[in-house]
Amino acid sequence: MFKKSYSLPVLNIIYSLLVFFITTFLIILWSYFNTQKVLNKNVEDYFNQSFNIAKIVLEEELKELKYLSYNISDMLRKNKTIEHSEVKKYLDDVYSNEELDLLYIKENIQIHDFSSSLFDIKSIIEEIDNNDLLYEDNILSLRINNENFLLLLYQKSIIDPQSGQVKYKLFIAKILNNNFDFVNKIKTKSQSQEVSIFLNKERISSTKYNINYNIEEFNQSSLLKKENQLLSKKIMTLSNRDSLSFVFLTNNTVFDELKINYLKYSYVLILIIVSLLLFLFFLGKRFVVKPINDLVIYTKALKDNKNVQYVSNVKEYNALAKDLKSIFLELNEIKEQYSIAIESVHDGLWDYEINKKMYLSEIFKRMLGYGLNDVFNEKISWFLAVHKDDRRKTLKKLVLHLKDQSSIFEAEYRIKCKNDRYKWLRVRGKAYFDDKAQFKRMTGFHTDINEIKSLQEENKKNEIMLYQQAKLASMGEMIANIAHQWRQPLSVISSISSSIQVQIDLKVFEEKTLYKNLGKINDTTQYLSEIINQFGTFFSSNKEKEKFLLKDTVLKDLVILESIFNKPGINLIITLDNVELYGFKVELMQVLINIISNAKDALIDKNIKNKFIFMRSYIEENNIFIEIYDNALGIAPSLKNKIYEPYFSTKSKQTGSGIGLYMSLQIINKQFLGKLSNNNYSFEYEGNTYKGEKFIIELPLLY
């Protein structure tokens, strides 16, 4: 009897197999217990999606109400009274065709009701009217006769174009109580088994008459399991702090099947891993363990002084192995550096080679909402996924690049993501050609610029809003100027008419004097009419560019401001060239009047004794320079750049909006492609030295 000994390689193999089987068992155990966690996440995502669908259905219903309200508003504007036959017929048709529950119009205190619902519409209207409610989110809850009502309500005020006052108030609504059509839409689109809606704790609508659960069963959890059913409660808080709950019900069998499939695929994956490891084990035994055993036997033979044949190429083999190892390490390092560089720039890489599958990086797919395993037919889908409004210009740039008319292909376009929404991307790429100048390959990057585009759009909206505010501020100042200029002419008309009336009463008037006085009245009214015409021209909505003469336009429009400068004793001295310009005449005048008005306010606020405002022009090369300067001591150098910021003003809040100079800069830069600047300025006039602020407008001349 003897004790069998095992070699070290064999012991290592046994140890490796033991570790492998223990690891495999732990993976199976982890996979089993992790399945429920994954399923819970899937269940939560499923019901969140159902809740989002319910919100979308609510938004669609509100859009329909809004659309109907605009149609009804147009009809009411075209007819003088609600009792008009066409209006009444149209409202009756709308109510019957659109399945509305509530439709009425309020004219002062009179209510015209076109509703014919089975609900107590009269009480609902009284509740809405008595409480004078605000409908910010258009979802309204009411308590009438101890019964809860939930309404989708849209209100619209209709303005009388002649008086500018609210003539009608339109109320249009759908009542969600027992509204099977509404909840059935949610059920169909969310693919739920049942859907119920609760207002606080009271069920107001459901796809099923009898339900086997109570809203209070949910307690602190939003998920409830009953037999083979799963229920989820999603809460929406209304503006009056009432709680609106959506309860979605689905069969639990779907998720049980998902669990079984998940485990089945886990077992298949583990089997593949086991097979792969066994294959690697036998491969290692053949090409790693056997050579090591041979080396051990060879070393033992040397130790025992046995006859051994020397293998001359062992050193060469070792040297080659070291070189290969060094090359592999260097390649892995380069690959890692390249991957880090690609990942850090957050750009999506794409690579297209003829007759080969197009490569899309993980970041590129993630930009469009696709996973690594999602199917994406790149060659066919790319051009169709580009927004139809961007295809033509993008294709044009691509064709120019392929014709070697541009060094790089660069474009910005919207592309459809997996969720069917569009995202803005910037693409940069380069095409490569073979020796015969035939297209071979194209590689490039996609950059996500969706947020930048959103900010640009938001800035554009803010700029439009600021422009409108500036124009309204100018209009308010102009109206004040007109009112000031009208006082004296109206006083003249009043005095002459009173004098004529007294002469008639006393029967002492002369025909010649009467005609003379009537002529004065006529001249004065013509003057008032001319001021109104100037005001209408200045605030015309015409946005077309036009040719106009600078001096004629300025002198004509500044008539409106004449009295506002004369009263405080301001001398407005104008020396302009009557050159022809091309652009938005009204907007240029808005800039000039804004700068002149600021100078006028500065002269008055600083109580300057001799008040001067100068406007002059000169031509230099292909540009005309318009200078406006005063003797109001100037603006502090620290405020030189701040005055062009929106809502910054050196005036009080009552007299300055802070948007005039900001919009003036935008108009000159963007509408006229010119420049606007300012600086402190000292000058002499009539033997005296003055200091003030000079604004310089530089505009290109029309040739």
Structure write-up:
It is a single chain. With 703 residues, the protein is an alpha+beta fold. The chain contains 15 helices and 22 strands. Strands 2-1-5-4-3 form a five-stranded antiparallel sheet. The longest helix has 71 residues, at 8-78. It is flat. Mean pLDDT is 76; it is low at 306-312.
SSE blueprint:
Blueprint lengths: L7 H71 L6 H14 L3 E6 L2 E4 L7 H11 L7 E6 L2 E13 L6 E10 L4 H11 L3 E6 L2 E5 L16 E4 L2 E9 L5 E9 L1 H51 L10 H31 L3 E6 L5 E2 L1 H6 L10 H8 L2 H15 L6 E8 L5 E12 L5 E10 L1 H57 L4 H28 L7 E4 H8 L4 H5 L3 E6 L4 E4 L1 H21 L5 E10 L2 E8 L29 H12 L3 E11 L2 E13 L3
Parallel strand pairs: 17-19
Antiparallel strand pairs: 1-2, 1-5, 3-4, 4-5, 6-7, 6-10, 8-9, 9-10, 11-12, 11-15, 13-14, 14-15, 16-18, 19-20, 20-22, 21-22
Helix pairs in contact: 1-2, 1-4, 1-5, 10-11, 14-15
